[in-house]
Amino acid sequence: xxxxxxxxxxxTGFLAFFRGINMSVSKKIRFEVFKRDGFRCAYCGKxxxxxSLECDHIEPVSKGGKDDLNNLITACFDCNRGKTNIxxxxxxxxxxxxxxxxKEQEAQLAEYRKFLKKIERRIAKDIKQIxxxxxxxxxxxxxxxxxxxxxxxxxxxxxxxxxIVDAMSKACSVTQNxxxxxxxxxxxxxxxxxxx
Length: 196
Known about the structure:
Helix content is about 60%, strand content about 5%. By secondary structure, it is mainly alpha-helical. It folds into two domains: about 20-90, Orthogonal Bundle (DNA Binding (I), subunit A); about 110-195, no CATH class. The chain has a two-stranded antiparallel sheet. Helix 4 (about 95-135) packs across helix 5 (about 145-155), helix 4 (about 95-135) runs parallel beside helix 6 (about 160-175) and helix 6 packs across helix 7 (about 180-195).
């Protein structure tokens, strides 16, 4: 029984070595490496089903390399076998290109988010200006948040802020009841939109 267990362990280890499976790199880490590298071999650029992918150590384990994401790249079976335990002095070109592309995408996304925040601040400022007109005429009342965020925001997409301020001012001066003002205001705004 003992000999059979030893043979099985040795055979399993040999099979793992022969197939290129590094048992110390978890499936989760391997998948993260493949995902980061776009499921392409960093050396030749091939991807499944044309080739089988593996994780390759940039700094070989035999020379002190660790099993962390920063020391792993995606390699196909043939490229990984061709490299064996030769140390990579620099990141392969494909991986470096991917890194530059990702940095550029992150920078663009950050700029886009800044731009959206700027628009949101402007819209909030415009909504407040329009809402303040209503409150000046009816100091004890305020427009509902829903009305501001739905109706006024919708009108701001089609009409200038000044036109909407004028429409609110007109609606407030014509109506005597604060409850009638929002509906009259919407009618004025829709008429401006229809005229265009």
